[in-house]
């Protein structure tokens, strides 16, 4: 994302008769498809990262509940290395989200890609998959902080997350 540059700006404006327009849209689609496919990998990463982060959070919730029930005094922080790795992952998600939000060229390229796809859809073999992926991207790209919002929603579904997040914040301050 950091090094992504707009491709749509370098493409010629579509004009001319219908056959010429169709050929230009098909060529534009072929040029933009690899770049948009890399952007679509962001969706897969988001889903995997959120699922793994929440599963690790649930593991820490269980470990903390177990240590609190077994110990009568102050229990040590369970799995401090896992806490630190989760903090690093949270930082990575925040940075990716900020990069996605600052790159206006992603939205421009995606808009041009959708327009090109609409005009050459009949010639594309896996059009249903591309349509599904485009629908996912159109919800993620224009909205701010979609990666962090997805993580926040998933975290709030985890019962007992408050104490673990407080421990994580304390560890981050140190």
Question: What would you say this structure looks like, in words?
Answer:
The chain is mainly α. Helices cover 75% and strands 0% of the residues. It has six helices and no strands. α1 (18-70) crosses α3 and α1 (18-70) runs parallel beside α5 (146-156). The longest helix is centred in the N-terminal third of the chain and has 53 residues, at 18-70. The protein is elongated, with a radius of gyration of 22 Å. It starts with 17 loop residues before the first helix and ends with a helix. The mean pLDDT is 88.
Pick out its properties.
single chain; 174 residues; mainly alpha
Q: Can you describe this structure in just a few lines?
A:
By secondary structure, this protein is mainly alpha-helical. It is built from six helices and no strands.
How do the strands and helices of this protein lay out in sequence?
Elements lengths: L17 H53 L9 H23 L1 H17 L6 H14 L5 H11 L4 H13 L1
Helix pairs in contact: 1-2, 1-3, 1-5
